[in-house]
Amino acid sequence: MAERLGSLIQQWLRANNFEAKANESAVPAYWVEIVGESVARHTTVERIDKGRMFVRVESAVWRNELALRREEIRARVNERFGAEVVKEIILR
User: Fold this and answer.
1) CA distances from 3 to 7, 19, 25 (A)
2) Model's pTM, two decimal places?
3) What is the pLDDT of residue 21?
4) Which of 42, 46, 51, 87 has its CB surrounded by the most CB atoms within 10 Å?
5) CB 17: neighbour CB atoms within 10 A?
6) Residue 43: exposed, middle, or buried by beta-carbon count in 10 A (0-12, 13-18, 19+)?
7) Three-state SS string across 34-69, please?
8) Please, are residues 46 and 55 in contact by the beta-carbon 8 Å criterion?
9) Contact 38/66 with Cβ under 8 angstroms?
10) How many domains does the chain fold into?
11) What residues make up the domain containing 63?
12) Other CB atoms closer than 10 Å to residue 81's CB: what's the count?
C-alpha cells in the first residue's frame, strides 16, 4: 500500500512539474549519504536554484577538497535522485 501511494505521489509530482523542486529540496536531507560524514561535518547545502547547488564550506582546505571532487559529488547527487537535479556546484 505504501509503495503504491508513493508511486501515485511521484506520478502526480511529475505530471505537475513539481518533481524537480521536490528533488532539489530533498538534497540536504541526503547530504551525509551522498558525500559521507567527514565531508558533511564541514559543509552545508544552502540551496539549489535552477540546477545550481550552493554549498557553504567551513575552510579553504575543505573548499579545495570539494573543488577537486565537484564533478563526482554532482554525479552522486544526480544518481541518488535518478535525474539531473544539480548541473553546477558553487562553493562558498
Assistant:
1) 6, 17, 21
2) 0.80
3) 80
4) 42
5) 8
6) buried
7) HHCHHHHCCEEEEEEECCEEEEEECCHHHHHHHHHH
8) yes
9) no
10) 1
11) 2-91
12) 19
The x, y and z cell numbers of residue 89, run together, are 556546484
Q: Give tens-digit pLDDT for 72-83.
A: 999 999 999 988
Amino acid identity for residue 16 in this structure = N
CA proximity to 43, closest of 56, 33, 25 = 56
- Could you give the C-alpha distances from 75 to 34, 40, 84, in angstroms and in order? 10, 17, 9
Residue 33, domain CATH: 3.30.300
Q: Which pLDDT tens digit goes with each residue over 29-66?
A: 999 999 999 999 999 999 999 899 999 999 999 999 99
C-alpha cell at 68: 577537486
